[in-house]
Amino acid sequence: MNAQSLLHALETVVGPAGIVCDPEQMASYLSDWRNAYRGAAALVVRPATTEQVAAVVQICHAHRVALVPQGGNTGLCGGSIPDDSGTQVVLSLTRMTRIREIDTANETITVEAGVLLQHLQEAAAAVDRLFPLSLGAQGSCTVGGNLATNAGGTAVLRYGNMRDLALGLEVVLPDGRIWNGLRGLRKDNTGYDLKHLFIGSEGSLGIITAAVLKLYPAVRSITTAWVALPDARSAVELIGSIRALCGDRLTGFELMSRQSVDFVLRHVGRCSDPFAEVHPWYVLIELSDTQPDAPLNDLLEAGLGAALERGWVLDAVLAGNEAQVAALWAMREGISEAQNHEGPSLKHDISVPVSRIPAFIERTDEALLERFPGVRIVAYGHVGDGNLHYNVSKPPGSDDDAFKAQQAAISEIIYAATAALDGSISAEHGIGQAKRDAARRYKDPLELELMRALKRTLDPEGLMNPGKVF
Question: Are residues 260 and 332 in the same domain?
């Protein structure tokens, strides 16, 4: 089928409003938000219903045209960007924005894949409920993309990631059939739990078009603290102590190196250092409760006081109002933006068992600085789930291209240390294009073969987001 025939066939399904073929209008679909990955496409198709998605997939399947599913296009590994052949079709879910049902008795919400995460959060809040996934890109990322990458964020410690928050899915399979698994059940022991095949699959097994997601009681009390630590090992000791004292009230526990904070203070104008003295490491701790007057300040002060006596904490400050809470979170959320101002950076998203975070940092810092003197290591992340964003910025004043040329060697050091500590080379960003080669080296060969067998079973023609994950 030539391009014009394909355009006509798809336009009969989605209408003129569902087709993008003008090069200027297509540009935003063909590059990721960092401009790190670029591709080309025959066209972009934007179906508005599940039935339209299915019809589009059937047409492309019949004519062996590869599809690249895309949500908000906020990923970091190139998973939603087509290749450079110009033959693939980008299938954007951004017109599928209906909230189909809110069931407060069942504590669930059913939404389509194109719903923005922020709009999902607002819909939950409107019925006095909480949808707890929280990401820096929540104003532009979509539910479908969150599910396809099994997104995590800052509240995984208490609520889990998207795999934990999803009860049921609706999926268009690679041949165009629709699997309706939109069941809001917490118990269903009738065989394989198929939704978990598609969550985290990055659109390589099918296209998620809708989901039943869990809701939680609204939060009415929050306490936030900025805490200085002598080393990363103290963070592991501290989180164990605070968790034992506060239980499920512990919602966030974010670790940041001083280098991370220095970049934020230098480049994010609204931020200021909470302490007069410089410290090696910091954590941002958040407690929350459904009770309006929960004694969270007392709990956290008691926990931090005990940690201070043990030498795990050097200093601490509790936010006194919402503005101060926002200011502390701005320090954490500004790291990625701030690092961009320091020139090229090599970003890594790894996880290791919580107990091994200090060993990972110590070993990897030492190995990198010995091999690449002067590099600046920006380490931060979610201590409670073992996820570190371990990024490397070039030495000040060095050549950009020369630094970029070291990417493979730098990544190899980081991934080897991760593997040695039984970790994962991708904690929450996925594989996409960026980590295919590394996945072949560091995933168990049998595990990879089982994944390929699933791919062959569901997508024998290899038309669903080819070149991603594998």
Answer: yes
